[in-house]
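writing this on my phone so excuse typos. first protein, seq and then structure
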Amino acid sequence: MKIVTAIIKPFKLEEVRDALTAVGVHGLTVTEVKGYGRQKGHTEIYRGAEYAVSFLPKLKIEVAVAAELLDTVVDAITATARTGQIGDGKIFVTSLEKAVRIRTGEVDNDAL
């Protein structure tokens, strides 16, 4: 089992969710986060004054998947979250030792 963590642009959430549902992912967690990478932020003008915005709003999506689905999930996120512009985000994959569904006591792949 693996955990796929993707940092994406906020307006891509619905497309990514639809793509993950289409490949068989039944649940995900979304967190609003702020950060920067190569973008290094940007400047905005508000009421005539210029402000530096160092941290940009992003969404962090976390999905627990069976190892067999890993490549399909990563490909689905990559294809739908890509705009071709700087700041599209990143995907991180980590191992998952154990998963337990609290309601039923199912473990590992059955719990996903």
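second protein below, same order as before
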Amino acid sequence: MNNNQTMKIRMEAYDHEILDKYALEIVEAVTKTGAMVSGPVPLPTRVERYTVLRSPHIDKKSREQFEIRTHKRLIYIYDATQKAVEELTELMMPAGVEIRIKA
């Protein structure tokens, strides 16, 4: 991996507290290696709403609504070295957090 390498890490999760905690762990691990970090930048939350009938037979007007919120964060790493990449691979990823890394 060359010096002056830029990495983009995009994280998604349903629980914003776990997402923020893990984003902070990534930032701390990468800054120890001397790389420049920008973020975590909160991206717009995707809200999916579902409406369900409470009773399938009589009460058509009685409905229940559910929603799922997907929280997103973006982290940029500038001047990433091989040591920074090794630190990222050694981190334990919690369940429920999806990570996409683009170099």
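The beta strands are 7-13, 36-53, 63-78, 97-102. thats all i got for now
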